[in-house]
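User: Hey, quick favor. My workstation is busy. Could you predict this chain's structure for me?
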Amino acid sequence: MLVQPYLFFDGRCEEALAFYEKAIGAKSRLMRFSESPEGHGPPTIDPANAQKIMHAHVEVGETAFMASDGECKGEAHFGGFSLSLTVADAAEAKRSFHALAEGGEIVMPLSKTFFSSGFGMLKDRFGVHWMVMSPP
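Assistant: No problem, here it is.
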């Protein structure tokens, strides 16, 4: 059994995937709405959204999440959860934290804690909540 997050960026998925590639080295495989076989995609696709992302598989290190543009309404909402990124050391935590925070909002600055050599929380420019941490 496997549980994986599936994030709906509501029209900004390709932009988000490019950002995560740069910020944390994510690798993506994607399928656009226009690539779905006849009769197997959404019942109605607005031609303006044909090149939007229907499905993406995103690998970050040893884990993965999935993503999509969903209904392409431009109103993505991410609440009630955080993606937790655990990295090798405090230096990588600092780099990853500041890369993900670019254009977003720092909720808790990265700092040493009793359980981590570097822990911080942020909301990225797409509204996704992240916790970044390194081992003690």
